[in-house]
């Protein structure tokens, strides 16, 4: 089973995802890559919902995340498990982010 690490909110891998990871990968690319793999084999989605500067994720971003999962499932993605965890962490600094996208 494949494990996918992805931020599924916002237009560029998530507005908060940009602050945490420094990601510039378009959401459409992330979604299409997850779908490409998840149509062929089961995929576990693992997601981080961190507190940033002490603030929890906005409710709107959580709703966007759930909608993206629904879109993937409707399009034929086999997602038997979604793992969600939280953490408090500082923002990424420019030039220090590493993003892996299947």
List the helices and strands and how they pair.
Elements: E1 2-5, H1 15-21, H2 27-38, E2 43-48, E3 51-52, H3 59-74, E4 81-85, E5 88-89
Parallel strand pairs: 1-2, 2-4, 3-5
Task: Characterize the structure shown.
- This protein is α/β, with parallel strands linked by helices.
- It has one domain.
- It contains three helices and five strands.
- The strands form two sheets. The chain has a three-stranded parallel sheet.
- Residues 10-15 and 95-102 have low confidence and may be disordered.
Strand order of the largest sheet: 1-2-4
Would you tell me the structural class of the helices and strands?
alpha/beta
Strand element count: 5
Computed Rg? 13 Å
Query: Helical element count?
Result: 3
Short key terms for the protein model shown above:
two-stranded parallel ribbon; single chain; alpha/beta; disordered C terminus
Give a brief description.
It contains three helices and five strands. It is of the alpha/beta class.
């Amino acid at each position: 089973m494949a494990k996918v690490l992805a931020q599924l909110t916002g237009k560029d891998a998530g507005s908060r995802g940009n602050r945490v990871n420094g990601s510039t990968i378009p959401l459409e690319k992330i979604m299409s890559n997850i779908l490409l793999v998840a149509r062929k084999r089961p995929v576990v989605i693992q997601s981080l919902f961190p507190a940033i500067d002490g603030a929890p994720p906005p409710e709107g971003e959580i709703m966007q995340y759930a909608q993206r999962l629904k879109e993937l499932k409707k399009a034929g993605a086999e997602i038997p498990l979604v793992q969600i965890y939280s953490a408090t962490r500082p923002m990424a600094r420019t030039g220090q982010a590493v993003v892996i996208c299947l």
